[in-house]
Every structure is written in C-alpha cells, then in structure tokens.
Automatic annotation (TrEMBL):
Per-repeat ranges for TPR: 407-440
Protein name, entry field: Putative Zn-dependent protease, contains TPR repeat
Limits of the Response regulatory domain: 1-110
Gene3D superfamilies (UniProt xref): 3.40.50.2300, Tetratricopeptide repeat domain
A Gene Ontology BP annotation from the UniProt entry: phosphorelay signal transduction system
Keyword vocabulary terms for this entry: Hydrolase, Protease, TPR repeat
Organism: Nitrincola nitratireducens
Lineage of source species: Bacteria, Pseudomonadati, Pseudomonadota, Gammaproteobacteria, Oceanospirillales
Amino acid sequence: MRSTISQMLRQLGVVNIQAMTINEQILDTVRDEAFDIVLLGHNASDKTTGIQLLEEARFRGYMRPTCGWIFMTSDSSQAVVLHAIESNPDYLITKPFTVDELKYRIDALIARKQVLRSIDVAIEAGDHQAALVHCDDVPVYEPCYEIAQRIKATLLIDLGRADEALDILQQHFWDMSDKDTGLCLAKAFISLNRLDEALSLLNDLIEAHPLLVPAYDLLANVHERKGDLVLARETLEVATSKSPLGIPRQMELGRVATYTHELKIADTAYRRSISLGRKSCYRSPDPYLYLANIRRLEMLSADPKDKIELENKMMTLLNLAEYSFPKDVAFKARSALLKAKWCEDNQNNEQAAEFMQQAERINRTLVSPLNLQREMLIVSGDAVPILEEKVDHTVLPDKVNFDPVMSDKVNRLASKHYMAGKYGQALRYLNLAIDYNPTNATVMLNLAQLYLEVARDNEVNRESRLKMVKRFLKLTQKSALTEEEKVRQRQLIYYFTKPLTSLPKGSLHALLK
C-alpha cells in the first residue's frame, strides 16, 4: 500500500517523499524533521498500528501546527474512526480511495496551511500573543476565516480570557452552527462557570451530532460541576459505548462510577484501560491502583470467606503494577496510601500508621511531592473537589528579560517534558531557560545532552546538532559548576568523544534540575 500511495503522490507532482514502514521510529523522524504533510496509514494487523502512532504523536506534542496530518485507514469501524478523530488529524480518509480524492485532500490542506501559516508558526513557537494578532490578519473573505477566529477563541480561553472568546464565538456559532465552534463555545461557558448555558448548548450539539464524542465529555464535566455525578456517569457510559478505545475516557468513567458506588461499571472501565494500555502512550499504573481499590471497596460488604480472596486480588494488582512500572516512585507512595486505607477499614491502626509513614518517606524523595491528603481521597475513590487546571503561561515570548529564577523554573518544566518523552517541548523550554539566564550551567548541560541524543538517533542535521553539543559543553567549561554538574559534564564530554553508534540507546541521563 505504501508504494501505491507513493505512486499516487508522484502522479500529483510530489517529488520530495520519504516513505517509511509503520513502526515506532516514525515518531523520532516526525519529531526531528520538518514535514509539510504526514500521511499515516493504519492496519489493525500491524504490530504497531497507525492509530497508536497518531495517538502518541498527539500525546508527545509531535503534531506540529505547521505540519498537516492525513490519517488513512482500511478499518472504517465507528470505534477506530472516532478514536482517530480524537487525535485531531487534519483529514481522515478510508481506504480504498482514488488519486482524485487524495489530491482534493492535499490541495485543501495546503491551501489552508498557507493562509494560516503565520498563526501556526507562532503557536508552534509558543508565542500565543503573536498568534492572536495573526488570527486577525486573515481576511473575512478567506474560507479559513472561521477557522482563524476559532483558533483565536481557543487561545483566549487558554490564556484565561474566556469572556473575550465568548464574544467571538457566539457571533460565529449562531451564524454558522458549526459543531467545532459549538464545542469551543461550550468550553468558554464552562470557563466562565455559566454551566446552564453550557448544558443547553451541549445537549443541542449531541442531538444534532450523536457521534460528537467530545461533547459528551464536556457534558459529563458540566454534570459533575453541578453536583450530579449519576448523570455524569451515565453520559460517560454513552460516550465510551460510542468510542471505547480511548483510555482517558475509560479512566474518567471508572472514577465517576466509583464515586457513585457502581463498582461493576468501574471494574470494567479500569480493566479496559489496562488492556488498551498495553500498546498505548497512556499506559500507566493508575488503572491497576484504582482496580485494587475496587477490591478494597468490595471487601467492605463481603462475607468473611470472600474477604481473603479479595485481599489477595488487591495485593496482586498492586504488586503487578509495581513490577510493571518499577521506575514510578510516586506510584509506590500512592500504593502505600491505599494499603493504609485498607488497614483503617480493618481497624488495624498501627499498621495503617506504618503505611502512612512509608508513603511520607517515599513522598519526600520525589522531585514534585504529592499532596498526600488529596491523593488519599483520589486513591480511595472518595469524591474530591474539582480543581481548575492551571494554565501554563510559560511559553516562548519574543523577548525575555534576564531572570535567573524564571530560568530555573522553565528548566524544571523542560525536565518534566523530557521525562514524559516530549523532547520537542523540552528543547523549546531549555532554549527559553537559556534566554532568561545565558549563564545557567545546568541548562547548558541539559541542552548539550538533548542535542547529543537527537544527533545519535537521527542522521538529519546531525553535524549542526553536534556543533550545538560542542558549543554548550565549551560554555560549561567557563562556568562555575557544582560537583553534580561536574560529573555530568565529564560524562557528556566522554560521550561526545565517542562514535555516536557506540552510545547507549535511550536517555543518557535524567536532566539536571
């Protein structure tokens, strides 16, 4: 099929084509190279499927705004199509398709990207203020004008200016009744805590578009904010029945079902999350932990003879998660919290205190310590207050002033992105950190490491990346380093003198904080 697509593209006059077999190396290529368009195929029989790569590319932030994505699938089932749409490709085409159809999609995508180019470049650089200005540069007569205004509204919501977004969205939605604009309008209502208006709008959207799954997610959120957890759960049940392949939605269903004491529904949702997570970027120990809590809750009303079996199942799940995710230290703290809760259930206060002390000891070793009181509520399935997600406004501005404190803060954000495998974002934050403080030796070492890893993993622009490694290592030699930094410096210099093929695979070291 790959050769057929390549032949189609050549018939359309496209000459600069890089054809690749579906595998995980595609993500590294997409991360490191600047493509105009990515055509990603999906076959369920592949070891690594296209939909897995699409989901992970979105999760890791590799789907750059300046690059167009066309997802091609021979599986036109509702579950696959809706799951693919959630990763937000520009177009989705079901196989087989004709050269004319492919041409139409590519031409439309190129035309749109050209008009929105300045907006996409600004967003990709993290400069939301510039992106807002460029949104207004798109003329009203352009077919992309509505898209530009929706992007502007989304940016305003992200920047905490939902009232301004509302003015834009209401005018365009009532004129066009576009479902994407409607979703954006609902988000603005929610941000402004105008829940009744959001509720009415989302119900109208679902009635008009029964397969608009993101509307169900927002509707469940509104029901929960209004205190109706039963309606929130029922809404999520409908959403997961329509689009069952999304782990975050299954986890949400499990959470709300636990709050409403529907343990069988929660059990099924967490089991599906574990099964789906075997080949997903959302793979984590969380569903094991929450499923273990379901066993704990079942013990509360179980017969004495059944409690032993449930206890064994709970401990097996926790042990399996710890074995499967040995590097997740935070999970060990959360697991200790659940064991403490279980001991409290059995009025074994002495052992409960020991597990709490264990959780506290582990928590003190974490770079970002947990709020153990809140985590206990989450882990044990007790409803917790909804907290608004804090918007991270530390994005790449055009100019920054010298600010060592901000440099360290942004460097820590880069480290978090690096640990999550989001190397593109990590590099952007490190460059911003060095802008805030050009003498920050920790950031220089982190940049040297990141450029060295990218040069090792990809031949494209390898020489220029190695020059960056050399530059930052040379700068650190003129800096006053801590003992830890000196160790990292010597290690990186050692790696730099070796052939790239001899370097270890994967992370060379956790980034310095």
